Amino acid sequence: MRRGSTWRQSCAAVACRCSHWRSASRLDVFDVVGFSLQYELNFTGVLNILDLSGLALRTADRPEHAPLVLGGGPLATHPEPLAPFVDAFFIGEAEELLPALCLEAAELQRAQVPRSERLARLATRFPLYVPSLYRTSRDPATGLVTVAEPLDARVPRSVRRAWVADINRYPFPDDSPVPHAQAVFDSHGGGDRAWLHGRLPFLPGRGGVSTGA
After folding, report:
1. Which of 64, 92, 112, 189 is 20 to 30 A away from residue 31, measured at CA?
2. What is the spatial distance between Cα 122 and Cα 89, in angstroms, rounded to a whole number?
3. Where are the domains of the chain?
4. CA 107 to CA 44: how far, in whole Å?
């Protein structure tokens, strides 16, 4: 990397393209490209990866054959900052349903179902929030953009969150592409509102969430 240059500039200078870390395949050849949204600082990284992959940043600019860009993880419950860039957000725990979702998306792609129709069909079968399928309006009191009713009658007005009954059936992956990684901090368990579990009141509804003292 040249002195004074950023990682993004260095990659652009050598026409670097993001690719799958195992197969080295370009991301634009996949049916679905997924991002785990762990915290807000991920958002600019998502845009960088899309750009370096040769995918159009905005969903409205992607051609029919482009992969569906899916967001999930904790911040999928706060999707609007990424709504212009992510095709669909998986709401809830994806361990059980994500494989079936990806297989169905691939089948619809092979059948050459139009992109908008693919998203609508998937949204009727899976807990997906598809921004392009909902009407938005600006609240005159606050100036904020709010999500209103769906534009497609098949799509639910409210997305029902997915829950995994037994999360222990899905062990945390231990084959990270980054070796020797470990957590550098953890919650102290006091419900501090600086942490996600303190800000999302629905979590204890699963019968109690113990983070340890």
Report:
1. 92
2. 11
3. 7-159, 184-213
4. 31
